[in-house]
Amino acid sequence: MIRIAHISDIHFGRISHPTIVDALIRDINRAGVDLVVVSGDLTQRAFGHQFRAVRRMLDAFDAPTLVVPGNHDVFPWWRLFSRLFDPLRRYEKIITPDLAPHVELPGVVVQGINSAFGWTVQGGRITEKELQQIRDGFSTTPEGAFRILVVHHHLAELEQLGDHDISKGAEKAFRTTHEMKVDLILCGHLHISHVAHVSIHNGAKPIVIATSGTSTSSRGRGSDPAANFFNLIEITKANSTIVELRFNPEKRGFFQHATHTLPRY
Ligand SMILES: [Fe+2]
Ligand SMILES: [Fe+2]
């Protein structure tokens, strides 16, 4: 079995509870995961001290991490020159210079892409470069392996979530994930914990889209804006599950909130 923790929208600078970061690290380490995926918005304002706090958090996980940036990780508007010409400089220096991280685990391949740019609005953008990274990421994946794409912004509209941001270029990107037989997309940005099955057309294999809620910030949205979540994904040959875990401030820990079984095709 492969176990992956999926956290998102950490937003250092707007942490919701004084004990939540330590609880997140402790509970993920206790779960004995093989990989920690972070789907962007690590900071609130892309300040150096916020990225350094993220670095300390990432280093505290026992498992390796796979991280992609979010729109809050590019320089803010008042640093316009940096925002336009070197938007992810601090992210690349302190977190990772790799904007297309790739991890292979037994029976599981995980590919990350960047959707956050200085010259786009907060909804994100997927360019031809990222489409090629998706193709390259899964081009040699053996048949039957479980394929996961990690991206901060959404590539499809989820009716249940009402009006929400979708990346520019999302349609092409979603088509590419379908062509590359991606099983699961891990994303964030909306600050709502949600799992959906989306088909590109009738009869096509559905792609599961797991949106992590904000794991540690006070910026939650939806019907339960004070809640913090992360996902625990368990993948076996027979079946796979996503468990949404929710933070309980009184008990200072994350507890099972909902479980989803993933289809096997
Ligand atoms: Fe966010
Ligand atoms: Fe975001």
Explain the overall architecture:
The structure is a single chain. The chain has one domain (2-262): 4-Layer Sandwich (Purple Acid Phosphatase, chain A, domain 2). The protein has 6 helices and 12 strands. With 265 residues, it is of the alpha/beta class. Strands 3-2-1-10-11-12 form a 6-stranded mixed sheet. It binds fe (ii) ion (2 copies). One fe (ii) ion binds next to loops.
TL;DR?
The chain is of the alpha/beta class and 265 residues long. It is built from 6 helices and 12 strands.
Kindly report the average pLDDT value: 94
What overall geometry do the principal axes of the alpha carbons give? globular
**CATH architecture level-2 label:** 4-Layer Sandwich
**Count of beta strands:** 12
- In CATH, the topology is named Purple Acid Phosphatase, chain A, domain 2
Radius of gyration: 17 Å
Instruction: List low-confidence stretches.
Output: none
Instruction: Please count the helical segments.
Output: 6
Strand content: 25-35%
Largest sheet: 6 strands, mixed
Strand order of the largest sheet: 3-2-1-10-11-12
Helical fraction equals 10-25%
Question: What ligand species are in this complex?
Answer: fe (ii) ion
Blueprint of the fold:
Blueprint: E1 2-7, H1 20-31, E2 35-39, H2 48-60, E3 65-68, H3 80-85, H4 89-95, E4 102-105, E5 108-112, H5 128-138, E6 146-150, H6 170-179, E7 184-187, E8 194-198, E9 207-211, E10 229-235, E11 240-248, E12 253-262
Parallel strand pairs: 1-2, 2-3, 5-6, 6-7, 7-9
Antiparallel strand pairs: 1-10, 4-5, 8-9, 10-11, 11-12
Helix pairs in contact: 2-4, 5-6
Bound molecules: fe (ii) ion (2 copies).
The site of one fe (ii) ion has 6 residues, from loops.
